[in-house]
Write a structure and sequence with these properties.
Blueprint: H1 4-13, H2 31-35, H3 41-50, H4 59-71, E1 73-76, H5 84-95, H6 100-105, E2 117-120, H7 125-131, E3 138-143, H8 153-165, E4 170-174, H9 177-181, H10 185-199, E5 203-207, H11 216-229, E6 233-235, H12 247-264, E7 269-271, H13 279-292, E8 305-307, H14 310-323
Parallel strand pairs: 1-2, 1-8, 2-3, 3-4, 4-5, 5-6, 6-7
Length: about 350
C-alpha cells in the first residue's frame, strides 16, 4: 500500500481532464516573425539528447508520471480495416486503460485514470461518440487530405466541415508540405485560416509532418505560421511518414509555442505522434514539455501523446515499478498500429 505522502504526490500530478481553456484565435499574418526563426540543427540535437538525463524519476514520482502519461494519450486507430467493433473495443480501453487490479495495487482507483481522446477516421466518429457517451474523453478525427495534404483546398475545407458535422470535438489536419518546402508562408497561413474557420467549435490540431519538411528551420517557420493562423495544437506527424515524432523537432516546436505565448498571450498545445511506443519515450516527451514549456502545459488540454500501442508498455512499467518484477498481463483490446 502507498503511504499518505505518496498518495498526495500522485494525486497532485494528475491533470484535470479536458479543462478546455481559451482557444487560440490566431493573429494577422506576420512574415517577419516567420522568417526570423533560424535553427542550428547540431545544437538542437545536442540539447534534445540531454533532456532525458536531466530528470531521474524514481519511486512514487515515477509511478505518478507514468499514470499521468496515460491521461495524455490520444488513443488512435487509423487502419484501413477499422470496423465499428474495433472502435468500440478501442473506446472501452480508453475508458479503462489500465487493469483494475493494477490500479488497486497502486491505490489509484479513485484518480479517474482515462485517456484524453480517441482518434478515428471520420466515418467512425459517430461510433466513438456513442461508445464514449458520458465520459470526459474527446473524439478526434483526421481531415484535410490526410495523410498527404495533396487534395484541393476546397476539398480539405469540406472534409473539416463534414468532420465537425459528424460530431468530432477535435480535427487533426495536415499541411501541404510543398508550401513549406517552397516557403510559401502566406499561402500556408491562408489555407490554415480557412481550415480554422471550417473547424468552428472543434479544436484544430495542425500536423506538420516534420520528417518531410527538410530542415528544423522549416519546422520552426511552419510552426509559427500555424500558430498565427489559429492552431489549437501543433502535432509532429501523421504516423505515416518514414520519420515521425523526434525530440529535436519537438524541442523546436515547443520553443516556438513558448515564444508565441509570451508574445501574444495565446497558449497552444503540443502533440507528438507517430512511433511513440514505450514508456521511456513517453517520459522523454514529458521531460521536454516540463523543461521547455513548464507546468502550465502539463494538462490534457495542452499536451497529448498520439499513440496506438503505448498503453501496453505503460501498464507493464507501472506493474514493474510497483512490484519490482516484470509483469505479464493477458492482452486487452487495443488500437492497431497506424
Amino acid at each position: 500500500m502507498q503511504t499518505e505522502s505518496e498518495q498526495r504526490q500522485m494525486t497532485s500530478l494528475l491533470p484535470a481532464q479536458l479543462s478546455r481553456e481559451a482557444r487560440n484565435t490566431g493573429i494577422p499574418f506576420d512574415l517577419a516573425a516567420v522568417v526570423r526563426w533560424r535553427v542550428n540543427r547540431s545544437a538542437v540535437e545536442r540539447q534534445a539528447a540531454a533532456l532525458p538525463v536531466r530528470r531521474r524519476l524514481t519511486g512514487a514520482w515515477r509511478i505518478a508520471w507514468l499514470l499521468r502519461a496515460v491521461t495524455w494519450v490520444d488513443l488512435t486507430t487509423l487502419a484501413g480495416d477499422d470496423t465499428p467493433d474495433a472502435v468500440r473495443q478501442l473506446c472501452a480501453r480508453a475508458r479503462q486503460p489500465l487493469r483494475l487490479d493494477l490500479l488497486e495495487a497502486l491505490d489509484a482507483t479513485g484518480l479517474g485514470i482515462r485517456v484524453a481522446a480517441v482518434c478515428v477516421y471520420p466515418r467512425l466518429v459517430p461510433v466513438a461518440l456513442e461508445a464514449l457517451a458520458g465520459a470526459p474523453i474527446a473524439v478526434a478525427t483526421v481531415a484535410a487530405g490526410f495523410p498527404a495534404g495533396q487534395t484541393t483546398l476546397a476539398d480539405r475545407v469540406h472534409e473539416v466541415e463534414s468532420a465537425v458535422r459528424l460530431g468530432a470535438h477535435e480535427v487533426d489536419v495536415v499541411i501541404a508540405r510543398a508550401l513549406v518546402l517552397n516557403e510559401e508562408w502566406r499561402v500556408l497561413y491562408e489555407e490554415l485560416r480557412a481550415l480554422k474557420q471550417a473547424a468552428g467549435p472543434a479544436w484544430l490540431k495542425v500536423i506538420l509532418a516534420t520528417g518531410e519538411l527538410g530542415s528544423l528551420t522549416h519546422v520552426a517557420r511552419a510552426s509559427e505560421v500555424a500558430l498565427q493562423a489559429g492552431a489549437d495544437f501543433l502535432k509532429t506527424s501523421t504516423g505515416k511518414e518514414a520519420v515521425n515524432a523526434t525530440l529535436p523537432a519537438g524541442l523546436v516546436m515547443a520553443r516556438v509555442i513558448r515564444e508565441f505565448a509570451a508574445r501574444t498571450g495565446q497558449v497552444v498545445g503540443l502533440k507528438p505522434a507517430g512511433g511513440i511506443r514505450t514508456a521511456q519515450q513517453a517520459l522523454d516527451w514529458l521531460v521536454l514539455v516540463k523543461e521547455e514549456l513548464g507546468e502550465r502545459w502539463l494538462h490534457a488540454d495542452r499536451f497529448r501523446l498520439g499513440a496506438s500501442t503505448l498503453l501496453d508498455d505503460l501498464e507493464r512499467h507501472l506493474a514493474h515499478e510497483r512490484t519490482g518484477l516484470a509483469a505479464s498481463f493477458p492482452s486487452m483490446p487495443h488500437a492497431r498500429p497506424a
